[in-house]
Amino acid sequence: MAISRIDHAAVSAKPVVMTPQSRTRALNVVGEQVTVLVDGASSGNFEIFHQDGPEGSGPPPHNHPWNEAFFVLAGQVIFGIEDSGDQVATPGTFVFIPAGSTHWFRFGPGGGQMLSMTPTPAISAAFAEADRLISPTEPNLDLVVEIGARHGLTWVLPAG
Fold first, then answer.
1. With bands split at pLDDT 50, 70 and 90, how would you rate the model's confidence at 10?
2. Contact, 114 vs 33, CB < 8 A?
3. Please, what are the domains in the chain?
4. Could you give the 3-state DSSP secondary structure of residue 130?
5. Host H or E run for residue 21
6. Using CA atoms, how far apart are residues 152 and 160, in angstroms rounded to an integer?
7. Any idea of the CA torsion for 56, 62, 65, 68, to the nearest 10 degrees?
């Protein structure tokens, strides 16, 4: 039996404490408020976000080469993962998306809140770019696709 070892060079070499005062403002990502709780530059490798979305908001089907996990805090969030059909997640539900899996989510009636976590420092830069360049009320979908592609996301959009 092989024993796996932690690659300490791949994780932060120093403790990290992020207070509410040390965080940046919530980013407006196509109508969803995304607060970066810890970014990859601070942690050394992972990112954690607080996502607060109005009813019906959420990304279209997409995939990326990293794992992603969600923990629902409030409301309902409907997830689609590959061909599994709609999965309704309520407060206390944990959802894991393996790297490469096509997935999407929508905040349910009245909106919702969740934590999301990625084991790679990739997506906070995409969220910041979307906040800077994309209107939350009239998003330019070509620009959404372009920003996502720059940061490793592949959108699975319907033909037409």
1. low
2. no
3. 24-155 (2.60.120.10)
4. helix
5. none
6. 23
7. 20
Element (H, E) at 146: helix 141-150
Within its chain, how far is the Cα of 4 from the centroid? Answer: 28
Amino acid at 37: L
3-state secondary structure 36-81: EEECHHHHCCCEEEEEEECCCCCCCCEECCCCEEEEEEEEEEEEEE
Query: Over the stretch 53-85, which tens digit does the pLDDT of each residue have?
Result: 999 999 989 999 999 999 999 999 999 999 888
Structure tokens at 53: 């979305």
Q: What is the share, in percent, of the chain residues with pLDDT greater than 70?
A: 91
Only one residue has tokens 């539900």, namely 93
Helix (H) or strand (E) holding 142: helix 141-150
28 neighbors 139 (Cβ within 8 angstroms): no
112-150 burial, b for 16+ CB within 10 Å, e for fewer? bbbbbbbebbbbbbbbbbbbeebeeeeeeeeebbebbee
CA distance 19 to 108: 29
What distances in angstroms separate CA 116 from CA 70, 73, 107, one per listed residue? Answer: 4, 11, 14
Which of 53-67, 83-97, 137-151 is the least confident region? 137-151
